[in-house]
Amino acid sequence: MAQKPSIPKGTRDFSPQEMAKRNYIFDTIKSVFLLYGFQPIETPAMENLSTLMGKYGEEGDKLLFKILNSGDYLKNAPDELLANKDYIHLITKLSEKGLRYDLTVPFARYVVQHRNDLQMPFKRYQIQPVWRADRPQRGRYREFYQCDADVVGSDSLFNEVELISIIDEVFKRFGINIVIKLNNRKVLTGIAEVIGAPEKIVDITVAIDKMDKIGLDNVNAELAEKGLSQQAIDTLRPLLTLSGTNQEKIATLEQLLATSQVGLKGIEEIKFVLDTASSLNLTAKLELDVSLARGLNYYTGTILEVKALDVEMGSICGGGRYDNLTGVFGMDGLSGVGFSFGADRIFDVLNTLNLYPAETSATTRVIFMNFGHNEAVASLRHMRSLRHAGISCELYPESTKMKKQMNYANSKGIPFVAMVGESEMQSNTIAIKNMGTGEQNNYTIEQAIELLK
Amino acid sequence: MAQKPSIPKGTRDFSPQEMAKRNYIFDTIKSVFLLYGFQPIETPAMENLSTLMGKYGEEGDKLLFKILNSGDYLKNAPDELLANKDYIHLITKLSEKGLRYDLTVPFARYVVQHRNDLQMPFKRYQIQPVWRADRPQRGRYREFYQCDADVVGSDSLFNEVELISIIDEVFKRFGINIVIKLNNRKVLTGIAEVIGAPEKIVDITVAIDKMDKIGLDNVNAELAEKGLSQQAIDTLRPLLTLSGTNQEKIATLEQLLATSQVGLKGIEEIKFVLDTASSLNLTAKLELDVSLARGLNYYTGTILEVKALDVEMGSICGGGRYDNLTGVFGMDGLSGVGFSFGADRIFDVLNTLNLYPAETSATTRVIFMNFGHNEAVASLRHMRSLRHAGISCELYPESTKMKKQMNYANSKGIPFVAMVGESEMQSNTIAIKNMGTGEQNNYTIEQAIELLK
Question: How high is the ipTM of this complex?
Answer without folding.
Answer: 0.93
